[in-house]
Specification:
- With 529 residues, the protein is of the alpha/beta class.
- α14 crosses α20 (463-485).
- The strands form 6 sheets. Strands 5-6-9-10-14-15-17-18 form an 8-stranded parallel β-barrel, surrounded by 7 helices.
- The chain has one domain (56-232, 277-529): Aldolase class I (TIM Barrel).
- It contains 22 helices and 19 strands.
Length: 529
């Protein structure tokens, strides 16, 4: 078994490859024989002529990206433990304890005022093109499903139509559209639309605007994410927009007002500017002040999202969240991203999900034993299917209530959107055409949605939203089946004993029992009876 965890110097993410693909030096990632005369297909070679552009996954705006690094322990190193005995949350009766009866709803908030139909949410996608271009599907699909969706950082500052007076936002187009799309399709009080803020958003008063003008109840402070340990980044292809963002105070590279830079851009020497956000500098005093400001502005629920920083920062996050009575803390493990996270950073920095989430459980347990009231916890970091959701809830039980997913829901929305375009152009691929050529035929949830919404409203639904809704429907049924197999018929009954570690290393890191030690005391009683 190889102990090399990183794949370096060649990746689909940076559009690079090794010349000697089967003979690569593990430490450097270089070809075993680097030949004078090679045109430079690897990351080193491409960096020789495109420099800093090769730091980021490409092509920007139409992709989401996740690290290729294989960690020594991940969620696949745990298995779910079923049983044939009893039932929790329902009568132990074979006619009642059926998987459709599993209750997936979750209630969070200091007043238990946030209701979610499913124990997952999208934890923050902001000003990237891939988020903006798929927002219809993400917002409407999330709202119809009754799940949470977070509008990430920089949406206000990136919007050319934003009206800013005296350094504060007074009107927007993009943020207003994003919020209202979700609100329009929200049903029966389920779900939550959240507006996140970084340094620039806070300076602009984006959250105060969202609360006062758009009726947003949930706001989130952002310390970071699992993909990178610096601020948000995007690429800009228009000179005027790059100049506008520089004038609004963003870090834009190279300087879009420099005459030589302008000349080089117009000549085609480079095609994209980089817009960077500032890193936040945390103090407890500034954190407390900001919480007070948001409450004064009318925020009903306040969340915090933190990334894969060192363990002491995780401890700060959960202590501050408890001390200042926040409603949700989301902890995002290393490895994933939806925008322009630096590729090497995405792979090589931060605490991986199982490690970070195990520490989160330890810290939550310590604070709980001290009598502290904790917020609901959410975890994120590469989750995509129902088994991942179950394992994350089990590893973090009883504190973790939600699982955050971004790349997978975006993928579902993008596929739904693409199918819609194919239907409109009457060019449905053969792989999909076997199900039909209309959205009623192709999407398995179409008949249910048409009945619930009525013909008129259903016909107006973008197929990106149907794609996300249908993906969520699959996750829900799959999770119900797993929970019924463990005889847990509501999410609050999921416990750490519902999973087992497949290796001693996974057991040591997580505190989850090694699979050969599971039920040992009970087994002795059975065998000795």
């Amino acid at each position: 078994m190889s102990l090399t965890f990183s794949k370096i110097n060649a990746s689909a993410a940076t559009l690079t490859k090794n010349r000697t693909e089967t003979s690569v030096v593990p430490a450097s990632g270089m070809c075993v024989t680097c030949v004078d005369g090679c045109i430079g297909m690897c990351e080193i070679g491409k960096s020789a002529y495109r420099g800093h552009e090769v730091i980021y996954p490409q092509p920007f705006g139409v992709i989401t990206t996740a690290a290729e690094k294989s960690y020594p322990v991940d969620y696949s190193h745990f298995n779910i433990m079923g049983t044939i005995v009893g039932a929790h949350g329902i009568d132990a009766d074979s006619d009642k304890a059926i998987f459709p009866a599993v209750d997936l709803t979750v209630v969070i908030g200091h007043d238990r005022g946030i209701k979610l139909r499913y124990p997952w949410a999208i934890p923050g996608i902001g000003s990237t093109n891939v988020a903006k271009n798929n927002w219809e599907g993400l917002a409407i699909g999330s709202a119809l499903a009754g799940t949470g969706l977070t509008i990430g950082e920089n949406v206000v500052g990136m919007d050319p139509q934003s009206v800013i007076k005296n350094g504060r936002i007074v009107d927007t187009a993009d943020l207003k559209r994003r919020v209202k799309l979700y609100q329009q399709y929200q049903r029966d009080g389920y779900g939550m639309i959240v507006v996140q803020a970084n340094v620039e958003d806070t300076r602009l008063g984006a959250q105060e605007y969202a609360i006062e003008k758009l009726g947003v109840q949930c706001v989130e402070l952002k310390w970071g994410q699992g993909a990178k340990n610096i601020g948000g980044e995007v690429k800009i292809r228009e000179l005027k927009k790059a100049q506008l963002l520089a004038d609004r105070g963003y870090i834009v590279l190279p300087n879009p007002h420099d005459p030589d830079v302008i000349k080089a851009f117009e000549h085609g020497a480079f095609k994209e500017f980089e817009r960077h956000s500032r890193v936040g500098i945390l103090t407890e005093e500034s954190f407390a002040t900001r919480i007070a400001e948001l409450r004064k502005a009318g925020a009903k629920y306040i969340f915090l999202k933190t990334g894969a920083y060192r363990p002491a920062d995780l401890a700060r996050a959960i202590v501050y969240a408890a001390k200042y009575k926040l409603d949700l803390l989301t902890v995002d493990g290393a490895g994933g991203g939806t925008g322009m996270s630096p590729w090497r950073m995405m792979n090589e920095w931060g605490m991986p999900p199982v490690y970070l989430h195990s520490l989160l459980h330890q810290y939550a347990g310590r604070l709980s034993s001290q009598g502290k009231t904790l917020p609901a916890l959410a975890v994120a970091g590469g989750f995509s299917f129902e088994d991942h959701i179950f394992k994350a809830l089990a590893l973090g039980a009883p504190f973790v209530k939600l699982v955050g997913m971004a790349r997978a829901p975006i993928a579902a929305a993008m596929v739904g959107k693409t199918i819609g375009h194919a239907i409109e152009e009457q060019q449905v691929p053969v792989y999909i055409e076997r199900f039909g050529t209309t959205k009623d035929d192709i999407f398995v949830t179409a008949s249910t949605l048409r009945k619930e919404l009525g013909n008129g409203d259903f016909d107006l639904l973008p197929t990106g939203a149907i794609g996300l809704y249908t993906y969520y429907e699959r996750l829900a049924q799959g999770l119900r089946q797993l929970m019924a197999g463990t005889r847990k018929f509501a999410t609050q009954h999921i416990s750490r004993t519902d999973i087992a570690a497949l290796t001693h290393q996974a057991a040591s890191i997580s505190g989850i029992q090694y699979i050969m030690d599971v039920d040992r005391e009970e087994i002795d009683g059975i065998l000795n009876s």
